[in-house]
Amino acid sequence: MLQLSLEEKAGQLTQYFYLGVPELPEDFDIESLPPEHRVFVEMPKFVEREMAAGRVGSALFVSDPVTINRLQRIAIEQTRLGIPLLFGFDVVHGLRTIMPAPIGLAASWDIDIVERAQAVAAREARAAGIHWTFAPMIDIARDPRWGRIFESVGEDPVLGAAMATAQIRGFQGDFGADRVLAGPKHFAGYGAARGGRDYEDAEVSDSELWNVYFPPFRAAIEAGAANVMSAYMDLNGVPAAANRWLLTDVLRDALGFDGFVVSDANAVKSLETQHLAKDPSDAAARAVTAGLDMEMATSEAAFAHLPQAVADGTLAESALDEAVRRVLRAKFRLGLFENPYADEPATTTVLDDANHRATAQTAAERSIVLLKNSGGLLPLTPDQLESIAVIGQLADSKRDLLGAWVFDHDTAETVTVLEGLRNRLPDTEITYAPGAGIRERLFPSQFDRADPTITATPNDWDDEAEITRAVETAAAADVAVVVVGQRQNQSGEKASSSTLDLPGRQLEQLRRIAATGTPVVVVVISGRPVDLQWADANVGAMVQAWHPGTRGGDAVASVLCGDVSPAGRLPFTWPRHVGQIPMVYAHYRTFEPEKQNERYFEKESTPLYPFGFGLSYASFEYTDLRVDANEIRVGETATVRASVTNTSDVPADEVVQLYIHQRHGTSSRPVRELKGFERVFLTPGEQRTVSFALGPDELKYWSAVNRDLVQDATTIDIWVGADSTASLATTLHVRP
Q1: Are 495 and 539 in contact (CB under 8 A)?
Q2: Are the beta carbons of 589 and 137 closer than 8 angstroms?
Q3: Mean pLDDT for the stretch of residues 211-230
Q4: How many helices and strands, by DSSP H and E, does the chain display?
Q5: Alpha carbon 640 to chain centroid distance?
Q6: Residues 241/290, Cβ–Cβ less than 8 Å
Q7: Which of 227, 237, 438, 520 minimizes the number of CB atoms within 10 Å of its CB?
Q8: For position 667, what pLDDT does the model report?
Q9: Catalytic: 264?
């Protein structure tokens, strides 16, 4: 550290957005712009000057390899020490080849395909010169009003931990030339924002933090995550970006993280806004002292004040040095000192790889959840169908199929649901009507401004005429595939919602189509659960396709036509109505548990679909549940086994799930907790024995009684089955 000045050390810990601006005429009067617009226009040149002065260690939001190499040359050739820059980007579920929404990937319950999907994302990103992704988002999400449930791993810590591990392995691999640093986020409790409102504060008990919100981060760290992003909000009254208990006592000391921590955008400067810090210097010193290593800034960085904080004695230089070491280790780990530049000629070859699109289709197929299939309406039988009506604006919207958090996509490569069905059924008459408009957001999305591919309902759209045309189109067909849901900008960051209703007149349109008597298949495109009570009671079949990505239309067609049997399973509890939120399967028994479904006087307080739910074109039978020992001692491990048989003539995947309940102990425990799962493929008539371990890792929990992890001598109820309502049961006794 002796070679770096205080200013250079602060620079290594500073990350700036580098946002391109349109070319301006030479005679353009910058002085005439409002201050905020002028800052935006002047920002690229400002960042380049800071790079040349050695006051930048990282840049984000650049995905053009030519630009990346130009900026890298500034850092290497124009600075005193020539330390390469670390380039980051939001590669959340793909760069150019877009995978299903992260909540859809979680719905696959398929560790292998999730790892493969994120390996494709990493390969494309690294080919473009990107070194680091701000992903995966592994916040537990238990309030579907929260827009970022779209990015999450769902409501359960065990499923979340498995998805975190798979994504870290996919992004990072062995840190080779085709991998990127992973940055799991947001540490911690961000998904518990009050009212599901993005950026709001969160009050989360220590018990819930340790038992629910921390486990996915522990798994990510054990998988080798090189970076962690802190959260924006106040957690229990302390902003996460300056929370020493969170960033040091928990993240480093308890969870064993040895990488570097980056703030979310402007979160260090926000310490002033949140009335924790008195000024930028105080904010910077408190963040580094807490354990934050790098500031993500859109304009002037608070970390520029770090040298003064050291001089004033408000920050120990040793703390500054340790943060710099962590950032430099990441750069060495990636080999940036030896190979700092992107291979520009190779970029197009990698991005054009057809195998990436094939992986995207497989991932989408495995994420689709069959919610209802009354009377065997699905799969469709093309030889018995002369015509299919495809209804809904989302059925032919390339951009909406991709979902939020994509910035370098190519919609020309995207296959819509309409196109997918026409590709799959070239000899069937397929008619299309866009139908009801989809209501726009009251507050526009900050991400849509720079995206020319955005799809929206035209201002002069005649809803009544278009709904009438859609109903007539459906009435004339043998079957109607009605695509409903939300646009891509209606979930994601700053896309929280006060309702789960279908936007606009989509439900009215669905009712009118169903009234024609034409069999109806509903395809839901969304990043969160929507209110499907009427549809569940009145239409023949429904599938949840999420925002399925680049090859989403082909995947939907493949599932609807039975080329694959759907085996996606819900990664959250699907409520009947927004008024039930939050609703989780792993709740506590509390008072009068036998009347749990009567908590509301006017509506059943049970979910529309339980956690882990999903139907199949096959049928499965669970038998012979057993434990290799009737009792074990605390600290020992038992093996739970169950047999599952495909009792149909359809080859298919099944997701076998293990749940437990602890009857008594130091603290009360939830009525059911997922403790293991395995997605297995079974041919017709095939039987498979699936095994799960139940030991200290599965049976320990954090108790508020002694404020530590405990494992009790107790009785454990065990269930194995197809979702969280599994009925095949046995018990295990745990002795002292």
Answers
A1: no
A2: no
A3: 98
A4: 22, 26
A5: 31
A6: yes
A7: 237
A8: 98
A9: yes
For residues 678 and 454, give the distance between their C-alpha atoms in angstroms, rounded to a whole number. Answer: 38
pLDDT digits (tens, 9 = 90+) for 587-638: 999 989 888 888 998 888 999 999 999 999 999 999 999 999 999 999 999 9
- Give the gyration radius of the chain's Cα atoms: 26
Residue 523: other Cβ atoms inside 10 A: 26
Token pair, residue 64, equals 């053009």
Residue type, position 204, single letter: V
**DSSP H helical ranges for 234-279:** 244, 270-273
Distance of alpha carbon 372 from alpha carbon 293, whole angstroms: 49
Tokens 């039988």, located at residue = 381
Calpha distance 416→402 (Å, rounded): 10
Write the single-letter amino acid at 324. V
Three-point CA angle 644, 648, 653, nearest 5°? 55
Are the C-beta atoms of residues 101 and 527 closer than 8 Å to each other? yes
Catalytic option among 156, 198, 234, 264: 264
CA distance 223 to 168: 6
Q: Which of 336, 331, 360, 337 is nearest to 124 (CA)?
A: 360
For residue 674, what are the β-bridge partners?
A: 659
| Per-residue 3-state assignment (H helix, E strand, C coil) for 71-105 | HHHHHHHCCCCCCCCEEEECCCCCCCCCCCCHHHH
The C-alpha atoms of residue 267 and residue 272 are separated, in whole angstroms, by 9
The pLDDT score that the predictor gives to residue 382 is 87
Region of 376 (left: φ > 0; alpha: ψ -120 to 50; beta: rest) is left
Say which DSSP state 194 is in. G
The candidate with the shortest Cα–Cα distance to 541, out of 559, 564, 568, 554, is 559
Q: Are 101 and 546 in contact (CB under 8 A)?
A: yes
Instruction: State the Cα–Cα distance between residues 556 and 566, nearest whole angstrom.
Output: 10
Calpha distance 64→360 (Å, rounded): 22
Give pLDDT, residue 19: 87
For residue 501, give both structure tokens.
Answer: 């209703």
All residues at 6 or more sequence positions from 327 whose CB lies less than 8 Å from its CB, including other chains: 12, 13, 57, 58, 86, 260, 293, 294
One-character DSSP codes across 570-597: -SS-B-SSGGG-S--SS----S-GGGGG
Kindly indicate the confidence band of residue 446, based on its pLDDT and cuts at 50, 70 and 90. Answer: confident
Give the CA count within 13 Å in the CB-facing half-sphere of 662.
Answer: 20
d(CA 69, CA 79): 15
Non-local CB neighbours of 218 within 8 Å, separated by 6+ positions: 161, 255
Bridge partners (DSSP) listed for residue 620? 646
Residue 29's pLDDT is what? 64
Instruction: For residues 403 and 545, give the distance between their C-alpha atoms in angstroms, rounded to a whole number.
Output: 11
Contact 608, 576 (CB under 8 A): yes
Cα 657 to Cα 678: distance, rounded to the nearest angstrom: 7
Strand partners, 1: none
Per-residue pLDDT tens digits for 125-145: 999 999 999 999 999 999 999
Amino acid, res. 389: A
What is the widest separation between alpha-carbon atoms in the chain? 84
**Does 39 score more than 80 pLDDT?**
no
**Neighbouring C-beta atoms of residue 413, cutoff 10 Å:** 18
Q: Can you tell me the distance from the alpha carbon of 445 to that of 473, in angstroms, rounded to the nearest whole number?
A: 33
